[in-house]
Automatic annotation (TrEMBL):
InterPro entries: EamA_dom, EmrE-like. It is a multi-pass membrane protein. GO terms for cellular component: membrane. Belongs to the drug/metabolite transporter (DMT) superfamily. 10 TMS drug/metabolite exporter (DME) (TC 2.A.7.3) family. Its main location: membrane. Residues 11-140, 151-282 form the EamA domain. Keywords: Membrane, Transmembrane, Transmembrane helix. The chain crosses the membrane at residues 37-59, 71-89, 95-117, 126-144, 150-168, 180-199, 211-230, 239-261, 267-284. It comes from Methylobacterium oryzihabitans. PANTHER family: ACYL-MALONYL CONDENSING ENZYME-RELATED, SOLUTE CARRIER FAMILY 35 MEMBER G1. It is found in: Membrane. This is DMT family transporter.
């Protein structure tokens, strides 16, 4: 019964995550015409800072102390750039393309883990990287289809998310999860506020609240909820179960884009995404087989 209950919990948490990720993308689309992107990101970071700070204040855990602030700063500078690139892509590209290109993040993580963490590049990891970048070529079809600069920006965002993942792995050796999440938002809040003041395109806040207040609230809540649900899914199940469910984001968001924004269901998109997903799932299965198995209880 334990396995069945864990599976049900993973499915429920992932259903919440998929819904929240899709809601975030839709909310960005709705708010972006009226609010500059840096202000959108500042609203998300401000909400995260307030909510996580309140949770820490009311809780009895280890608190929000940052033992490795330079690494926090480096991690969140990369994450801020990645967040901006992803949000920018959502406003210009079909939603399915943005999510498919974002799925190259595990391939980038593999390369960065070899370079930064000195992890071994196994055959299955190399295959995942190769299939990932082959999938990108199928989706973008350079030389055949017009290559949009926004696509390259989303790829850079995926690289930024990958660096964030590697830095997170380093931070978890000394920092709590709550501390990492708090400083992620607390550091990016002033970065986005300053960038928003330096660039043109100021928004009238009363107008935004009056006409786009619901979408902005959905954006802030869904942004937090997506990561909360995903984290809980990983707590209840192995990556080999969670990640394939996470890839359901792609067909879901493609249907959302088709239904709400008239975006075409491009077969090249699904073919390229299938290559990316197959490489990652293959590597996960190989890694699971290589992992040391627990000894029998009677040993």
């Amino acid at each position: 019964m334990r396995v069945a209950s864990d599976l049900a919990a993973v499915v429920l948490w992932m259903a919440g995550a998929l819904t929240a990720f899709s809601a975030t993308a839709i909310a960005v689309r709705e708010v972006a015409p009226a609010l500059p992107l840096f202000d959108i990101l500042a609203a998300r970071a401000g909400t995260g800072t307030a909510v996580i700070g309140l949770v820490a204040l009311l809780g009895r855990g280890p608190g929000l102390r940052a033992r490795r602030m330079p690494l926090h700063l480096l991690r969140n500078l990369a994450h801020a750039v990645a967040n901006y690139g992803w949000t920018y892509g959502v406003t210009l590209l079909p939603l399915g393309v943005v999510f498919a290109l974002e799925f190259t993040t595990p391939a980038w993580v593999t390369l960065l883990a070899v370079l930064i963490l000195r992890e071994r590049l196994t055959g299955s990891r190399a295959a995942a990287v190769a299939l990932g970048f082959l999938g990108v070529l199928v989706i973008l079809r350079p030389g055949i289809a017009a290559l949009q600069p926004a696509s390259l920006i989303v790829l850079v965002a995926a690289l930024g998310f990958a660096f964030t993942a590697v830095a997170t792995k380093l931070l978890t050796r000394t920092e709590t999860t709550l501390s990492i999440l708090f400083w992620m938002n607390a550091i990016q809040l002033p970065l986005n506020l300053v960038a928003g003041r330096l660039l043109p395109g100021k928004a009238a806040v009363p107008f935004v609240v009056q006409h786009h207040g619901v979408a902005l609230a959905v954006l802030c809540v869904a942004g937090l909820a997506s990561h909360w649900c995903l984290t809980n899914a990983y707590k209840r199940g192995d990556a080999i179960l969670v990640i394939p469910l996470d890839f359901l984001r792609l067909p879901l968001i493609a249907v959302v884009g088709w239904q709400f924004y008239g975006e075409a269901l491009d077969p090249w998109l699904f073919a390229g995404a299938a290559l990316i997903v197959s490489g990652i799932v293959y590597n996960l299965r190989r890694e699971a087989r290589r992992a040391p198995r627990p000894l029998p209880s009677g040993a």
